[in-house]
Design brief:
The complex is a heterodimer of chains A (245) and B (626).
Chain A (H helix, E strand, L loop, with lengths): L1 H15 L2 H18 L10 H4 L5 H4 L2 H13 L4 H6 L1 H7 L4 H22 L2 H7 L6 H28 L3 H17 L3 H6 L5 H7 L1 H9 L2 E3 H27 L1
Helix pairs in contact in A: 1-8, 2-5, 2-8, 5-10, 5-11, 8-10, 8-15, 10-11, 10-14, 10-15
Chain B lengths: L3 H27 L4 E3 L10 H8 L5 E7 L10 H15 L4 E6 L5 H9 L7 E7 L2 E7 L1 E7 L2 E6 L10 H20 L5 E4 L10 H4 L8 H8 L6 E2 L14 E5 L6 H12 L3 E5 L3 E2 L6 H8 L5 E3 L1 E2 L5 H6 L2 E3 L3 E3 L5 E11 L5 E11 L3 E5 L23 E5 L4 E3 L1 H5 L5 E8 L5 E3 L5 E3 L18 E8 L18 E2 L5 E2 L16 E6 L8 H9 L2 H23 L2 H10 L6 H6 L1 H30 L5 H8 L2
Parallel strand pairs in B: 2-3, 8-9, 8-10, 10-11, 11-28
Antiparallel strand pairs in B: 2-6, 4-5, 6-7, 12-14, 13-24, 15-21, 16-23, 17-18, 19-20, 22-25, 25-28, 26-27
Helix pairs in contact in B: 2-14, 3-5, 5-14, 12-13
The chains are: A mainly alpha (245), B alpha+beta (626).
């Protein structure tokens, strides 16, 4: 309950600043723009060339969009508190650290979900022009929410470690990029064969594709959730350690 | 009281513990087959028909997969994906399927042994990039299925496009495995193809060689994938059709004499199946290649054809199928989307080559649709037909006018059934072929439709069950058989000790009549591709799939067709409507959501501005004094 109250306050904070609107507008422009106006980066794919109601090309852009946008969202959550010193005030309240971390996480996650909800116009529009298979769309949205949550947890953890927003943003974006590219054909080409098992198991894109093509794979869901939980626990640990100083 | 240092180590330990617990949890669940297939057509679940095939195995089936452990980048998922599918087959078979993976790469004796097999199994050389360097390697992609004394091999590379993604591979491989199991369980099934082979025209001989061909190579390959290779059968020799064949496909019969018709009739009466691909003329055959050149370049609006009277009219009429003269055209089924190349110029005068999708009708090329744009059934497909329902759109080129004579069919009694599997729209008409030409456009003075011919016409008709012979009760002089003719048309002496003529079906047989013989030709897609009509290429390819489906259902039952059907479902958009609504789609998906976000932001800002008390002395004064 306390976490939800904190989340509501944080979310209001988002709405009061330009961050939420920039995040949502950039997310829509990136995803929908590159599928309906321009073309997917480095390819000739867009809706008018694919001519299909299968949205895997469109969904495959979600993790990459999150790589830049979620760290931008997360960088505000902790470094702001550290820089302005409000963290001392926050810690003096009778709330537990894990409740604060959960509150911040839920606020960010809610904004990500709002962003994803705004993209529902895409399957709806595509469904007007052909037969849409809802299963893979549901799977891909589930995968998008899980990836978004995991990136946000990384961003929160890095934000708690770094005092500077820019540092937190860059470090988070690099980690998220590595998680997406890992297991990708491109990275596999440059790594020895013996590594491929590990990189595929850790890769966000491999697991995202699995869910995105319409297979709700329980181990992949567990992977994303456990990754998020680990990052959140580490975040609590970092804040608790700061408290002790 | 905890000190800062001990708190630090406590939390470090807690963090480490959580990481270890998460890793252990992931390791524990990684091998679990907990998956939910969310797709509508269950394309990642083993289809029930595949389960039925696996569970129907009577003996042990051993599958040996000769797959390299180190595979090129794009297909590294293969061992994992194949194992998951084979495991599903094993479970469905109740242990009747066993499989093992072997990498022969380092095993020289095994390589030698596999090389000596028939067909020889060898590694396939492919390029790859490893640690940033281009390399070339020999990779193994073979599967051997053993069932009793039967064996079948399968090269995974035959899946071609389906190998590009794991999802596509998982979707396609159940059919291939099930097809091999069916093939092994039915080793005695035999199909014959009777076709008129011709030497390729001189301009093609450099590519195709001088050996006579019938341009049915693609069809033969498609059949061979899951049925024994079709065998060539000669119909014109006047000898009985081989007893060991189960089905005969007669491709564009031409000038069949009475004796040959008799042999077909008796083959059918023996409870076998006859599939006739009819045409009144040859238009897209090897000997018509030269005529299509100018037509494709827009220099001609018609194509010259060679008339090929089949000689089956009376025989078919006996079964209630009336094969008329001329050609069927259907404006309602002829609308297609063409990719037209266009040069457009930007405001600076720079020219760009683009493709524009243009809808246009192509007379004679009929695309029968299962569902209309409103997703309602069109009535052109028979819902109950396992071979064709689910194919979506299928095409035929300049078909023969068929019609049904129910009264003639009634003579066969209640043990026989007649079905129209595919029809045109009610707008179809019949045109005569004048001057041996077929027209490519509607607006160039094509001959008028024959009066009273407008109406829906069958494109595929099936007759099955216990049938009566066309030759029942007929005598030819002293014989009950039509006279036998030699190559020059001269009558040959009666063959001694002939078995008794069958007056009616010994076993239920099947006769299938297709109103076109061009769709299985290798040449047709090439020609249509030059027209850039996506619909036509897909429709004709689907018709070929339908023919293979039909052979499957006739010979082996409907299981394989059921497995294949979900793989064929494409989810294409209506390109004409998309093209018309291009701007609206862009507005709806990009502009409006962004404007909505900015609008909400603005409203929120105004709302906050109103609610925030401004510490202005003037406002304070106004608030205190009314």
């Amino acid at each position: 309950m306390v976490s939800l109250t904190i989340a509501a306050k944080e979310f209001k904070g988002f709405l009061s600043s330009a961050v939420a609107y920039i995040f949502l507008a950039a997310f829509i422009l990136w995803l929908n723009g590159s599928y309906f106006v321009w073309q997917k980066l480095g390819t000739t794919y867009n809706f008018f060339t694919v001519q299909s109601t299968v949205l895997d090309v469109w969904f495959s852009m979600v993790p990459m969009a999150f790589v830049l946008l979620v760290p931008a969202l997360a960088m505000k959550l902790w470094p702001d508190e550290l820089k302005t010193g409000t963290i001392e005030l926050l810690m003096s309240y009778p709330v537990k650290t894990r409740q604060i971390v959960m509150g911040k996480f839920l606020a960010g996650l809610f904004l990500i979900l709002v962003g994803l909800a705004l993209t529902l116009v895409v399957p709806w529009t595509v469904g007007q022009y052909g037969e849409l298979d809802r299963g893979p769309v549901i799977g891909a949205y589930l995968a998008s929410a899980l990836v978004g949550g995991a990136f946000l947890a990384v961003g929160l953890f890095m934000g708690a470690l770094c005092r500077e927003q820019v540092t937190a943003f860059i470090v988070t974006a690099l980690i998220c990029l590595a998680l997406v590219l890992m297991g990708d054909t491109l990275t596999n080409l440059f790594l020895p064969q013996s590594w491929h098992g590990i990189t595929n198991a850790l890769s966000f894109s491999v697991r995202f594709d699995d869910l995105g093509r319409g297979v709700a794979n329980f181990p992949s869901v567990i992977y994303f959730l456990s990754f998020t939980v680990v990052c959140l626990v580490l975040n609590v640990a970092v804040v608790e350690c700061r408290k002790g100083r | 009281m905890t000190t800062g240092k001990s708190r630090f180590w406590t939390w470090c330990l807690a963090g480490l513990l959580v990481i270890c617990a998460a890793a252990a949890l992931n390791l524990a669940v990684s091998g679990l087959p907990w998956k939910v297939d969310l797709t509508e057509d269950g394309r990642y679940t083993l289809p029930p028909a595949a389960e039925r095939i696996a569970s129907g195995l009577e003996d042990l089936c051993k599958i040996t997969v000769y797959l390299s452990e180190e595979l090129p980048g794009p297909v590294r998922y293969l061992p994992r994906a194949l194992t998951s599918r084979l495991e599903e087959f094993r479970a469905a078979s109740g242990g009747k399927i066993e499989y093992e993976f072997i990498d022969p790469t380092q095993n020289e004796p095994l390589k030698e042994e596999l090389k000596k097999r028939q067909p020889p199994l060898e590694g396939i050389t492919l390029g790859d990039i490893s640690e940033g360097k281009q390399i070339q390697g020999s990779y193994w992609f073979w599967m051997i299925f053993r069932y009793g004394d039967q064996e079948a091999t399968f090269n995974l590379l035959e899946l071609r496009e389906a190998l590009r993604s794991e999802g596509e591979f998982l979707r396609q491989i159940p059919f291939q495995i099930a097809a091999k199991l069916v093939k092994l369980r039915n080793p005695n099934v035999k199909i014959g193809i009777a076709s008129d082979k011709k030497p390729p025209p001189p301009e093609m001989q450099q590519q195709a060689g001088r050996e006579p061909i019938d341009s049915l190579g693609v069809l033969r390959e498609a059949i061979k994938r899951h049925l024994p290779a079709p065998e060539d059968v000669a119909l014109k020799s006047g000898t009985p059709i081989r007893e060991d064949l189960n089905t005969i496909v007669v491709h564009r019969p031409e000038g069949l004499d009475e004796r040959t018709v008799f042999e077909l009739d008796q083959f059918l009466m023996k409870g076998k199946s006859v599939v006739l691909l009819l045409d009144n003329f040859s238009s897209l055959d090897l000997d018509r290649q030269m005529d299509w050149g100018p037509a494709m370049q827009g220099q001609s609006t018609s194509v010259k054809v060679r008339m090929t009277p089949h000689g089956l009219t009376d025989w078919l009429a006996h079964f209630g199928i009336v094969a008329g003269e001329g050609v069927v055209e259907d404006v309602a089924c002829a609308n297609q989307i063409f990719n037209r190349q266009e040069i457009v110029r930007d405001p600076n005068g720079r020219a760009y080559l683009t493709f524009r999708q243009v809808p246009a009708p192509l007379p004679g090329l009929i695309l029968a649709k299962e569902f209309g744009d409103d997703k309602a059934p069109t009535g052109q497909f028979a819902d109950q037909s396992p071979a064709f329902s689910g194919l979506g759109v299928v095409g035929m080129a300049w078909p023969v006018p068929l019609s049904i004579d129910r009264a003639a069919f009634e003579k066969h009694g209640s043990g026989a059934a007649l079905e129209e599997v595919l029809k045109t729209s009610p707008e179809a008409v019949v045109r005569d072929i004048t001057d041996q030409k077929i027209e490519l456009r509607y607006d160039n003075g094509a001959p008028e439709a024959k009066a009273g011919t407008r109406g829906s016409r069958p494109l595929i008709v099936g007759v099955r069950g216990k049938l009566k012979s066309f030759f029942a009760g007929k005598t030819f002089g002293t014989s009950d058989r039509p006279p036998r003719k030699g190559p020059d048309g001269a009558e040959l002496p009666e063959m001694p000790e002939l078995p008794a003529k069958l007056e009616e079906s010994r076993e239920p047989g099947q006769l299938w009549v297709f109103a076109d013989s061009d769709f299985p030709s290798n040449l047709l897609p090439q020609l249509i591709q030059r027209l850039n009509s996506i619909d036509a290429v897909n429709g004709l390819a689907r018709m070929q799939v339908g023919l293979v489906n039909l052979l499957d259902t006739v010979l082996l039952g409907t299981d394989l067709v059921e497995i294949r059907r979900p793989n064929l479902k494409d989810r294409l958009v209506n390109v004409v409507r998309v093209d018309q609504d291009k701007s609206a789609i862009r507005r709806r998906t990009v502009l409006y959501p962004v404007l909505a976000i900015l609008g909400v932001g603005l409203l929120w800002w105004i709302f906050r501005a109103i609610r925030t008390r401004v510490s202005s002395p003037t406002i304070a004064l106004l608030e205190t004094k009314p």
